[in-house]
Every structure is written in C-alpha cells, then in structure tokens.
Amino acid sequence: xxxxxxxxxxxxxxxxxxxxxxxxxxxxxxxxxxxxxxxxxxxxxxxxxxxxxxxxxxxxxxxxxxxxxxxxxxxxxxxxxxxxxxxxxxxxxxxxxxxxxxxxxxxxxxxxxxxxxxxxxxxxxxxxxxxxxxxxxxxxxxxxxxxxxxxxxxxxxxxxxxxxxxxxxxxxxxxxxxxxxxxxxxxxxxxxxxxxxxxxxxxx
Amino acid sequence: xxxxxxxxxxxxxxxxxxxxxxxxxxxxxxxxxxxxxxxxxxxxxxxxxxxxxxxxxxxxxxxxxxxxxxxxxxxxxxxxxxxxxxxxxxxxxxxxxxxxxxxxxxxxxxxxxxxxxxxxxxxxxxxxxxxxxxxxxxxxxxxxxxxxxxxxxxxxxxxxxxxxxxxxxxxxxxxxxxxxxxxxxxxxxxxxxxxxxxxxxxxxxxxxxxxxxxxxxxxxxxxxxxxxxxxxxxxxxxxxxxxxxxxx
Amino acid sequence: xxxxxxxxxxxxxxxxxxxxxxxxxxxxxxxxxxxxxxxxxxxxxxxxxxxxxxxxxxxxxxxxxxxxxxxxxxxxxxxxxxxxxxxxxxxxxxxxxxxxxxxxxxxxxxxxxxxxxxxxxxxxxxxxxxxxxxxxxxxxxxxxxxxxxxxxxxxxxxxxxxxxxxxxxxxxxxxxxxxxxxxxxxxxxxxxxxxxxxxxxxxxxxxxxxxxxxxxxxxx
Lengths: 204, 248, 220
What we know:
The complex is a heterotrimer of chains A (204), B (248) and C (220). Chain B is mainly alpha-helical. Chain B has helices spanning 4-9, 12-44, 58-85, 89-120, 128-149, 153-181, 200-232, 237-246. The longest helix of chain B is centred in the first third of the chain and has 33 residues, at 12-44. Chain C has one domain (3-218). Chain C has helices spanning 3-16, 18-38, 43-67, 71-75, 78-85, 89-118, 123-151, 158-165, 170-184, 190-218. Chain C is elongated. Classes of the chains: A alpha/beta (204), B mainly alpha (248), C mainly alpha (220). Chains in contact: A-B, A-C, B-C. The interface between B and C is medium-sized, with 29 and 28 residues.
C-alpha cells in the first residue's frame, strides 16, 4: 500500500503576464483519486500543475497537504510526489538504463531492466537516448513509475507520442497505482480510454 | 521598534500616494539647490591654486560620480529585499533607478574626460577611479539589458534583483582591485567623515550641488516608480479610481 | 535522484561530450594565437604580456564553456526534475560547476607549459601562472554559473551573459596578472594568490545560492 495523501487546493489563482490562467480554483486530491486537468491549448494545464509543485508563482490561494499548509514551502509535498513534465528529463547522451539509474539510484540493474521490460524497451536498454524515437524516450521516463514508491503522481501530457499499446500499458499502471491507494493528477486534452477520472476543466 | 512604515512601504497604493506628495517637492527643492551650488561653484568660488579654473568641473563631476555609486548600492539593497522579503516595490525601485544611475555614471565619465584634458593632457587616462566608473556603467548596462531581454515580469524582477545584488557584492572588490592596479588620480577630494582639505568657500557649493542632485534624482526616481506602479497595478481598483479622479 | 547519482551522471555526460572540452581548449589556444598575430610577435612584447594574454584567453574560454552549462538541462526538462526532486538546487549547482571546472581546467593546465613557451614566458613565472589559474578560475566558473542560469531560457543569451558576467571577472584578472607580473619582477606574489583564493571562496559560498534562485525563476 502507498502512503495515504490528501492535497487540498483552495481558491488558487494563477496569473501569467496579462492573462488569468485560473481564478479561485478549488479541488482536492486524495488516495485513490484520478484527477484529469482538461482544457484547450494555452488554458494553463501545465502551469496549474507547476503552480501546485511550486515553480510557477501563485497569485492567491492556499495549498494544504495532509493537514499542513505548504503554500510557502513545498518540501513535504515534494517528498511524496513524482513529476514527469512535458519534457521528462531524459538525457540524450545516456542510454535508457543510465537515464533510469540517475533517477532511481537505489534500485539494482535487474530491477531497472524489469521496468524497461514493462515499457517494451528492454531491447533498447543500452542504446543512447539520442537514437530513440520521441515515444521511446517518453517510455524511458514512464518506466520510473514502475520503480517508485511515491504516492502522488503528477503526469503532464504523459500520452504524447505513445502508441496505442503504450497508452493502454500506462493506463493499466495508473489503475494499479490507484488501487494501491495512490493518487494521480494528469493533464491531457484527449479523454482516457478505460479509466474515468474526475475532470477539472480550465477555460481559456 | 515600530515596523509599520516598513510594511506600508510594501504597499504600492500607499507608496503611490506618498510619492505624489513628495516626488514633486524633492525634484523642485533639488533643482533649486543644484542651481545654487553650480552657479556658486562655477561663478563665485575661489580658484584652485594648482588647477586654476578647470577644477570647477568638480561641482558637477563629483556629485554625479558619488550619486552613480549610491544608486547602485541602493539597487543592491533593494535586490536583497526583493529576494528575501519579496517586497513588491523593490523590483519597481530597481527598474526605475537603474536608468537614472546609468546616466549619472555616463555623465561622470564624460565630465571626468573633460576634466582630464587640461589636467593630464589627454581625454582618457587609465586611472583607478575613471576605470571603476566605466565598470560601474557596464554593470548598469547589464541590469538594464537583462531587464529588457526577459518578457516575463516575475522572472525579470528576480533576475534583476540577482544581478544587482551580485553586482553590489562585487563592486567593492572591483573598486579595490582597480585601485590596487593603478593609482594615478589625486586622492578623493571630498569625504563626509573627514575634515575637508578645501577651504569652506570651495566645498560649501559642492555640498549644495551634491544634496541638490540627490534630491533631484530621488524625486525623478519616485516619478518613475509611480508610473511603473500604475502599470503593474492596472487591474487594481484603487488605480482605476485614481485615474478616473486625477487622470494620468 | 540523489546527490551521488546526480554527480555520477554529470561526470558521465561530460565524459561523453569530450568535444565540448576540446572546443573550449581550442578556443583558448586560438585567442592566444591572435595576440602575436595581431599585436607583436617579438619576445620583447610577448614576454611581459604573457600573463595578461593567458588570463584574458582563460576568462573568455571559461565564459564560453560556462555559458551553455544549463542549456541542455533546460531543454530536456532536467531542471524541472531538479526542482521536483526536493534536493537543494544550490548543492546540485555546486556539483555541476565542480565537475565542469575539473573538465576544463585540468586540460588547460596541461597545455599551458607549451603555450607559455610560445609566449616567451620566463620559466620562473610558469609556476605562478599555474597557481593563479588553479586558485582564480573557480571564481570565474561560479560567477559564470549565475549568468548561465539567468540566460538559460533565452534563445540568444550568450552575448547578454557576457555583458552581465565579464565586468565581474575584472578583480580575478587584475590580481592574477598582478601575481604573474610580480613574479616576473622577482617580487612577492603570495598576497595576490591569497586574494584570488579568497575571491574564489566567496564566489563558491554565494554563487550557488544566486544560481539556484535564477534557475527557479527560469523554469516556469
């Protein structure tokens, strides 16, 4: 079982230059929740996620994590989360295995290879990421989901560049994570195939 | 100690109203003092026994050079305040003062060169103080360049605060290194802490023009800050009311 | 991610990109070559000027090396992962700068005796030049890392970064060349070297914090 988490977002407002991205947005994420942040291009889906994690400044509002106010210092929140951004931090000069080793240093090579097998990359474990396709690179990053014990996942457009098989593997993994008591926040503009998330709709 | 003034200073609205009262006064009093000091210095103060009349540029050169350094110091402090306490007005201050300080540094360079011609026989000498003013000018240009290069307001504010703070930490080291590197210049003519070596009829006008220039620069900076505050707070209700009542 | 795995990966990526190190070194040699060609190839000019020439070339080569140090991390999302990791950004910056420093300065020190010969630097002064580079360049790297962090999101930030950072390099260049000149005139130079070391220590203590603030502001 994963550590139980509860994140409350209260009256969150984010501004980006001239535009208000979201105004007085409130929702909460707890163990077992799948939250999908939806909206058109430029509605501020990624910014909302980054604001929760603390690297887009928030104009107003509060973040309560497990009962504690983390609006100013996100350390507690950051300890329990795993974030995969739009560009998920995969280094071109490293092989798939080396990339995973950077992020999951306490796992054995065997475990890393198993994770790569889950995302059908075992055959490419020793090939530099520069030679892999965009979808394959994303799958290297997604392999971290099989290696982590964090409860709260923030996935920014995780389906980009994935093939149909990849999408269903990822959805299965998310379902497994939810049933273990984890929570997932994803941004995506297309609906999920098998899972039914709570939707937070952002408008432009 | 009473800290209310400090918190008030964080409020753009309070500052705007305060500056409307004081900005103009500073500018006019400053201009008057500056005029007195310069006219007195250029027209009536006694000649220097070595340099004759050419020393009179001191009444412009010295205040301007000192002000250029003070402005950068103030920007560095504002940078610190901005990074540590996230006070809203600090980046506004840096943005508004930087061009004022840059112009002062430029005038100091030009007047120094003009002074150098009769004194040393050339327009430019690689002397310690001229060189450090040149570096100071480059530091100002750096602050303004990064301000212009970044579109995102929040990021630009942070960046400018970092650059000014790093610059202020470096400035004494730069000054010291340049002085160590070369000292050709005459020793500093005017220090507040020491008994001046000039006769009173000579340094009094200098004091007038220095105080006048400081006040003038403070007033102009307040005006610039007011404009910046209006632009940044354009969505706030008090700005709408202010503009409706008094116009822009 | 933890500090150890990050440091290891930083080394690995620097070793994989040996060309970058080589480029910095070639740039260094190129700048030095310009002085005899552009000013005067006689030993009367070069011998006293050698310290200054070597240091100007070093400063420029280091700026070139440092300028892009976060570019790739910014583009591939690694900087976001830094923030998400919950690790101290200042320490990550420190580790990165340290690795970069070793990768650039060690090869530079290796080719230095050869270039010193070509510039007619007296053999007695070579040791001081080496020491000044060892003690002074950490400051150049750490200060430069602030500029690199500030301009990482700009597509053409290189020139801006030079404008921001080069004035801050002046004290290091002044004291380093001062030490070399003192050695050439057979005077004491330990004071200048001590100041170089002090500047590097101050830069080491403060720059990672400033670079961390800048990285946080850049990633959004």
